Structure formats: structure tokens, C-alpha cells
Amino acid sequence: xxxxxxAMVQYHCNNSNQKINTEIGLKYVxxxxxxxxxxxxxxxxxxxxxxxxxxxxxxxxxxxxxKNSDFIKWCEAAITKESEPILKFRAIAKELSIGIVITGxxxxxxxxxxxxxxxxxxxxxxxxxSKVHTCDFDWECYLESGExxxxxxxxxxxxxxxxxxxxxxxxSARELMLQGAEIILIPNNCESMKPRLQELSVRAMENMxxxxxxxxxxxxxxxxxxxxxxxxxxxxxxxxxxxxxADEKTxxxxxxxxxxxxxxEYRNREDLGKYxxxxxxxxxxx
Length: 286
What we know:
alpha/beta; single chain; six-stranded mixed sheet
């Protein structure tokens, strides 16, 4: 029976010290391997921390802050796939034969991007995804948005990634589903989780994909979760698609397993997303 066990690291890296964040992350990877995980999923912007200089919180036009020394330092701290933290995660992935989804601010053309890398069991980067739906109502307006959604194959499972606010847009998951995604992994860092859990349950159902989301712990936060796409059994009886929801404040690894064979059988027999009437969708790209 084909399965995928995902270890979600429900921990808050709120220190921008990349060396410290990397060392903490590597320890969690080793723990995940001991617990039998196939893939380790980190929250949003793990290596760099999800934070910005105070000047960016003013939300003034970027032309007024791009020469500020703190803003320049923040941009220069963005990483690349060749940066030491990424090389260390690649090395441990190969050493332990485990997949890793690691995150951080990466260098864009001019300003940082909010990025997730999927690393395979051989330590190779098989997908780089930069957040498309940046939170432009807040300081993420200074980030460069990604330009598309992509999938890769890990252990012969088709996997896609969304990051945090991407989840608020149904088009994100649908783009991945149309490319064949069977599992969508979501690095997250936000609060107000109750409606967002409901939202993720629906994304799993409407796209017939498994979803795993990891979120740092905190008041009205945490709640790392895994949802199955399966909402009816073979007899058409409704079933709960919650595989796991962590509590708000527990710190550390939470694990859950997808039954890939069951998901594939369900996708073959059910119809959600298969009979779209695309000629009627005239406003989706406006």
C-alpha cells in the first residue's frame, strides 16, 4: 500500500539568525526521520524568519524606502539555492533519505521573494515555488510575487506547493490540480485559523487532493492540519475528511499519513473537477 507520511514542524522561528534557524531545522529533520516520516514540512520563511525591518511596516511607496540601510540589509539577507542553509538541508536530505520542504526569503530580480524548496531523498531540489499571492495589503507588498504554480514528483507522487495567503484563492489549488497534483503542501504563518481550516477542507474536497498545512504555534494560531480529499465512501455515504488537526500551542513535530492508493482510487471513481464548463468562465483571468 502506497503511503506518504508528512512531519509538520509546528515551531516558530522568529529570530532572523539563519544559522540558528538552520540548526534547529536540521534537528527536526533528524527527529522526523526517527518517527518514520517521508517528508518534513516547515512553516513559511523558516530559514530567514517571517519578519521585515520596521521601515517596511510604514507601507509607504517602495521608492521612499529602497535606499534605507535596514531595508537594503533585509534584501541582501535573502538566500539562494546555493546559500549555506539550503546546502545543509540538501545534505541531510541525502544523508537520511528523506524529503524536505524548506522555506525562506529568496533573492528575486530586485527584491526578495517568499519561497519554498522541495528537496528529494537524494538531496536534489525538485521544485522551487515563490508565493504568488503576496499579502499586498501589508508589508509583503515589497516582495516580488511568483509567476505561477508548479508540481513535481516525489516518490512517484505528484506534489504541489502553496504558501499561506495563496490558500485564500481557489485558483491556486485548482491550478495545481489541473497539473495532476495529488498532494498539496502548505507552509503557513498566520492566525485566525478556524475559518482557514474550513477553507482547506473545501480545497481538498473540490480538487480531490490531499492537503497538509503547517503553522507556527501561538494564540489563535498553530492548528497544523492534514485533510483527505475523500468525502464519500464507496457507497456514497459522507465521511469526515479530517486526517489530523493539531492544537494551537503545542510546539514540535506532528505527523500524519496519506494513503495514496485510496486517494487515487477515489479520484478515479469520483467526478469533482472533471466536468468543468470552461467556456463559461469568462471572468477568471480578468
